[in-house]
Amino acid sequence: MSQIDPINLDFPLSEKDYKQYANRLKEVMQTPESERKKSIQLVFADGTIYPRKGKFSFVDRQVDPTTGTILIEADFPNPDHTLRPGQFAKARAVIDEIQGALLVPERALVELQGSYQIGVLGQDNKAEIRPIKTGPRFKGQVVVTEGLKEGEKVIVEGVQKVRPGTAVTAKPYQESTADAAPSHLAPEEVKPATS
């Protein structure tokens, strides 16, 4: 007989992602199981989300050399027995929260030799190009950790055509619903002004 309440979800985590979150996973696994926060969502192939959250229960001791992944296991309550062994789903977990994060659309970034720049609408509608430092990415948005302040207008469209000091005519940026994420920044779509 196999146990189905709670039911286990096994999922692989790449070695790169494991290295990034190893300290947080270690902290979670050192917490007594009864005190672990239920923070993992189960997302089915059709995009629906299982109504109950799960918690981390196991981290394998080694990386699989054939796949470059490490196995993680989470337990989910399954009192109605709606989840069955052999089903496929994705795991989504909150690993970290960034309070007051400044988000901009990824498409506003210009990569230059491994670093990033962004176009900002300055005084008198003149473009500025600034180096920035970035953090995590989520649903088409990226966290800007340095080089931008809340309330500044970002050039999203046509930034490759804009040069410092270029006069621009700004239009509000229309975010696609697929990429929508909350933001503390009012991004702008900017096109070079015509004379």
Describe this entry's structure for a reader:
- The protein is mainly beta.
- The protein has 2 domains: 7-93, Elongation Factor Tu (Ef-tu), domain 3 (Beta Barrel); 103-192, Beta Barrel (conserved putative lor/sdh protein from methanococcus maripaludis s2 fold), CATH 2.40.420.20.
- It has 1 helix and 13 strands.
- Strands 6, 7, 8, 9, 10 and 11 form a 6-stranded antiparallel beta sheet that branches. Strands 1-4-3 form a 3-stranded antiparallel beta sheet. Strands 2-5 form a two-stranded antiparallel ribbon.
- Strand 9 and strand 10 form a beta hairpin.
- Residues 178-195 have low confidence and may be disordered.
Write the layout of secondary structure elements.
Blueprint: E1 7-14, H1 15-30, E2 40-44, E3 55-59, E4 69-76, E5 89-93, E6 103-105, E7 109-112, E8 115-121, E9 127-138, E10 141-146, E11 153-155, E12 168-172, E13 188-192
